[in-house]
Amino acid sequence: MAMNKAILKFFDVQELVCRHVYNTFGLSALNFLDEKLLETLLFVRENIGKPIYVNNWQIGGNLSQRGLRCNLCDLVKSKTNANSIYVSAHVLGKAVDFDVKGMKAEEVRQWLLTNENRLPHPIRLEKGVSWVHMDVRTFDGSETIKWFTA
């Protein structure tokens, strides 16, 4: 619970979960997010020293699937059919896509790389996208940062 209080200093719950989950569970939706993700996101926000933006649907924007995604979200529905299974780090509450005010995504990735030894948990970062995808999904190896392309 201390982590929830700390993360709420910088983020609204609506920023971190899709509107379906927030509309159903309200503030308790925060409990669906992995604590390692919250600790790492908090570390980045406190140490990068600039605002971080995840979803903005709650303030009239069009970003609603950059944190926790549920089975009603278009990005999830578009990847599944009656014969398939789709389990992403976003669905598991282990990923966020975000932007940092005044920084390009590649600058943020480089900041993370420079600070990798200080990160509270190993992370995966997506290469070559105009936003920062960060997740704490388990992976093999001893790297602090695992790079991938979707």
Give the strand line-up of the largest sheet: 1-2-4-3-5
Q: What structural class should be given to the helix and strand makeup? A: alpha+beta
CATH class: Alpha Beta
Largest sheet: 5 strands, mixed
Could you say which overall geometry the principal axes of the C-alpha atoms support?
A: globular
* Mean pLDDT, all residues: 91
Distance between the termini: 33 Å
Q: What percentage of residues falls in helices of 4 or more residues?
A: 25-40%
Spell the H/E element sequence: HHHHEHEHEEE
Strand residue percentage: 5-15%
The whole-angstrom Rg is 15 Å
What number of structural domains do the residues give? 1
CATH architecture: 2-Layer Sandwich
CATH topology: Muramoyl-pentapeptide Carboxypeptidase, domain 2
List segments where confidence is low: pLDDT < 50 over at least 5 consecutive residues. Answer: none
DSSP helix count?
Answer: 6
How would you characterize the overall build of this protein?
30% of the residues lie in helices and 13% in strands. With 150 residues, the protein is an alpha+beta fold. Strand 3 (123-126) and strand 4 (132-135) form a beta hairpin. The protein is globular and about 40 Å long. The protein starts with a helix and ends with a strand. The mean pLDDT is 91.
